[in-house]
Design goal:
The protein is mainly α. The chain has one domain. It has helices at residues 2-16, 21-54, 61-84, 86-89, 97-121. Helix 2 (21-54) packs antiparallel against helix 3 and helix 2 crosses helix 5. The two termini are 35 Å apart. The relative contact order is 0.10.
């Protein structure tokens, strides 16, 4: 239900603002998702490295350290390429309001996540 309402609001907003569905609207959402997914995968790779670094060794060094580290390096390289080309991904010629907006939106969500989680658990953030 939430996904349907969100989609309806976004489509209605695009119609009201007379945005080109493919040339503008789709490219913006594609840019947001490209950065977001690769960033989440990189953070997951960091979590894997931390997890295996704090637990008793089990499995080979390749499985615990080398493969996750190589995966993280590859994801960070892709993230760098995406960020360098972000204006083109969102339909701009240089960093402008949409490119910066994508980064602000994702950064805000990243920072808001722990706050929301702590409030739901009743933990005070100091």
């Amino acid at each position: 239900m939430v996904a349907s309402v969100t989609s309806a609001v976004l489509v209605a907003g695009a119609v009201l603002l007379r945005l080109d569905p493919i040339g503008q609207f789709y490219t913006w959402l594609g840019g947001i998702s490209s950065v977001g997914i690769v960033l989440l995968l990189a953070l997951t790779s960091i979590a894997v490295l931390v997890f295996f670094g704090t637990k008793e060794p089990g499995g080979s060094r390749w499985q615990r350290r080398i493969a996750p580290a190589l995966g993280l390096l590859g994801l960070l390289a892709f993230l760098g390429i995406i960020l360098l080309n972000l204006p083109e991904l969102v339909g701009e010629s240089a960093y402008g309001p949409f490119s910066v907006g994508v980064l602000v939106l994702l950064g805000s969500a990243l920072l808001a996540g722990p706050v929301v989680a702590a409030r739901r658990r009743g933990i005070a953030l100091d």
